[in-house]
């Protein structure tokens, strides 16, 4: 495995302002600091880069003056910084969203459709910049990052179109002289918390339906990748979304108090979160005190099953797309690959051969197929899963080790890995790896593999390959997951419901009913009409 990290001039570090600098000086320094920092990103439109949070339409610093340093995982160099906000800023952001709600929720659905379509167009027009930004802060290769931007924009387009279709119901009444009407109304202020693995798409998947429904939002983007969120907010403002409708609180070490306030505030009516199961459970508990509606898209541990009647070429390609997308850092990545014994050796050697050709490195460079993990800390879990599996009897077909970093700093690069003969007792069979590790386990019968596949507490996605139509139905129905890929490794689209069962979460995002999670139904019974039955 070759690590391709071409030598390049060190990126300039943005100037840091110490807390001891007098406030008047900080104010004077800021515009120059922002523009010199923005040039580090190399965007065509540097004004998309924001180094401040957004409250009530104003770009603002934290009250404390503290900052969060954001680094490029491919180079370990600082890209810039954003404010370390806390409780006070969160309260202000909630207040701003609440103030903006009455007028935004009263706009016509057609108006919300039009501004969201404008935002969709702006995201397409700026796809070079938005893609580059995703690569810089997340590490995924540029082509994949631009793919994320297209995926991200598709949520805005889909929900712009859904804004005008939030139909209610007329239900025949059980009593004379009365009529039943069910209307849908926006739920109110929505708190949105998102992960770093999709710096843009996880935001639009939530902001799209929220704004389309007429809600206003407070976004807490991940500390690792805040710039994509801030750029989206800038484009939203250019699209005509009024001040206070979108607010952004950036935070890292104050995350507990920010999360608690977002969940416990009486003003916030819904929490929408994507991230780990452990954090989802915490937020669910905190939201109970105000009976908030929640959408929780939590962890997975996807089984990927190859039966002996599968098209092996297609199964190998699908395993690559499914397992190694985002260097294995997606909730729907295959985590356990089960292959039936008669095709096991063939599948394993073809997969290993394809993976050995990957080019790992800085995602901005030509020819790179796979980028780094989000940070050096993420490497630790992958290393642990590899060494645990090997100790228990697995063999390494490709990869299996951390690659050196370009500048001697702790490395975020892990060699794409294929392990075979991974026993069912290996840690990775019950823990999500979140890294570029394909773990192969042999099975004999359909019954056995379904038992193995379903033997986890989580159930987000599952995949299988078979050309037997009866088996396709049987297995699709028996897999205990929210989403099944039958003869495909890619399932994610704005037009379908995305979400899990068991401890993978609550609610569905996207699809024809995705907007309903941001609305509440109200029954109006009209009586005394004097019209008979
Ligand atoms: C996730 O990893 O949480 C989302 C993956 C996707 O939308 O495909």
UniProtKB/TrEMBL annotation:
Listed InterPro entries: Ald_DH/histidinol_DH, Ald_DH_C, Ald_DH_CS_GLU, Ald_DH_N, Aldehyde_DH_dom, Aldehyde_DH_Superfamily, Succ_semiAld_DH
Stored Gene3D superfamilies: Aldehyde Dehydrogenase, Chain A, domain 1, Aldehyde Dehydrogenase, Chain A, domain 2
Domain of life according to the entry: Eukaryota
Record-annotated membrane-spanning stretches: none
Pathway(s) this gene product operates in, as recorded in its UniProt entry: Amino-acid degradation; 4-aminobutanoate degradation
GO BP term, pick one: gamma-aminobutyric acid catabolic process
EC number from the UniProt entry: 1.2.1.16
Residue stretches making up the Aldehyde dehydrogenase domain: 59-524
MF terms in GO: succinate-semialdehyde dehydrogenase (NAD+) activity
SUPFAM superfamilies membership: ALDH-like (SSF53720)
Keyword terms: Oxidoreductase
Keyword Oxidoreductase part of the UniProt annotation: yes
Family from the record: Belongs to the aldehyde dehydrogenase family.
Name this polypeptide is given: Succinate-semialdehyde dehydrogenase
Organism: Crepidotus variabilis
Phylogenetic lineage: Eukaryota, Fungi, Dikarya, Basidiomycota, Agaricomycotina
């Amino acid at each position: 495995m070759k690590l391709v990290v071409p030598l390049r001039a060190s990126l300039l570090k943005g100037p840091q302002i110490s807390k001891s600098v007098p406030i008047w000086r900080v104010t004077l320094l800021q515009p120059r600091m922002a523009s010199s920092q923005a040039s580090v990103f190399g965007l065509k439109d540097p004004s998309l880069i924001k180094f401040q949070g957004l409250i009530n339409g104003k770009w603002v610093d934290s009250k404390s003056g503290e900052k969060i340093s954001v680094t490029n995982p491919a180079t370990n160099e600082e890209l810039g910084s954003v404010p370390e906000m806390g409780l006070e800023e969160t309260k202000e952001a909630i207040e701003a969203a609440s103030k903006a709600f009455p007028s935004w929720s009263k706009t016509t659905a057609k108006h919300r459709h039009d501004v969201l379509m404008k935002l969709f167009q702006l995201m397409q027009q700026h796809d070079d910049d938005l893609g580059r930004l995703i690569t810089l802060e997340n590490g995924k290769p540029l082509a994949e990052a631009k793919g994320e931007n297209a995926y991200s924009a598709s949520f805005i387009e889909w929900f712009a179109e859904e804004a005008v279709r939030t139909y209610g119901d007329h239900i025949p009444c059980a009593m004379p002289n009365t009529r039943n009407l069910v209307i849908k109304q926006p739920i109110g202020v929505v708190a949105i918390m998102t992960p770093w693995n999709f710096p843009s798409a996880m935001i639009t998947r939530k902001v799209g339906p929220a704004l389309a429904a007429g809600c206003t939002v407070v976004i807490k983007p991940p500390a690792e990748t805040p710039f994509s969120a801030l750029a989206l907010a800038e484009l939203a403002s250019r699209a005509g979304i009024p001040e206070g409708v979108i607010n952004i609180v950036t935070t890292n070490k104050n995350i507990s108090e920010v999360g608690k306030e977002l969940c416990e505030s009486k003003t916030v009516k819904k929490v929408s979160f994507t991230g780990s199961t452990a954090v989802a459970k915490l937020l669910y508990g905190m939201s109970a005190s105000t009976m908030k509606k929640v959408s929780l898209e939590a962890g997975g541990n996807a089984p990927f099953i190859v039966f002996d009647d599968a098209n092996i070429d297609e199964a190998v390609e699908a395993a690559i797309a499914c397992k190694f997308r985002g260097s294995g850092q997606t909730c729907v990545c295959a985590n356990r690959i089960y292959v039936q014994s008669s095709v096991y050796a063939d599948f394993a050697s073809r997969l290993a051969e394809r993976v050995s050709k990957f080019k790992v490195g800085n995602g901005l460079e030509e020819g790179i197929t796979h980028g780094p993990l989000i940070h050096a800390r993420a490497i630790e879990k992958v290393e642990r899963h590899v060494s645990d599996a090997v100790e228990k009897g697995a063999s390494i077909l490709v990869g299996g080790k951390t690659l050196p970093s370009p500048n001697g700093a702790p490395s975020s690069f892990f060699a794409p890995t294929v392990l075979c003969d991974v026993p069912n007792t290996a840690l990775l069979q019950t823990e999500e790896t979140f890294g570029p590790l394909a773990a192969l386990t042999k099975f004999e019968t359909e019954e056995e593999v379904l038992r193995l596949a379903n033997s986890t507490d989580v159930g987000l996605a599952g995949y299988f390959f078979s050309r037997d139509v009866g088996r396709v139905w049987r297995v699709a129905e028996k897999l205990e997951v929210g989403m099944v890929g039958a003869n495909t490794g890619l399932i994610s689209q704005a037009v379908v419901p995305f979400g899990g069962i068991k401890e993978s979460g609550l609610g569905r995002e996207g699809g024809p009913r995705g907007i309903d999670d941001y609305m509440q139904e109200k029954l109006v019974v009209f009586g005394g009409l004097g019209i008979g039955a």
